[in-house]
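Entry:
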Amino acid sequence: MFSKTKDSSSTPEPLTSTSSESKRSTSQSGVPSIISADLRVTGNLKSDGDIQVDGYIEGDIDSATLTVGEGAHVKGHISCESVRICGTIDGAVKAKSVVMAKTARVIGDIIHDSLAIEAGAFIEGNIKRLEGVGRTSTVSSPSTSTSSSGSGSASGSTASTTAKPLAS
């Protein structure tokens, strides 16, 4: 059924890729390192690629992208380019892009450049905007109106913006 003719004259070619080439192909492949639901890790995780956590991590996580599954629990600080939170995090989160699903629970500060929170997500801590190198402070002019919107489902966070008229 699964027959394959074996050619004894062919020999396998040796691998000649450098470590930077294999690192690049791993991160471009999009296959994450997975911490499964039955795995408990005590220690820090560091990766240049993607990590998906479905188990329990007690330690800090530093990676390009991170997905925290619904049943996952992370007790430590997170530093990533982008993170999607569906489970529980007990520690600070620092990422350019943070997405919180309705099942997310974060006890700690969130420092972000872009933040999306689904209704039902729980946050106990401060939410702060990431101060980028190219970011400049904006000043309201009299013709510019400033508005603010906050999510009622985010516990412990407040959003307020005050625009003061400029004196003539």
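The first strand starts at residue 33 and ends at 35.
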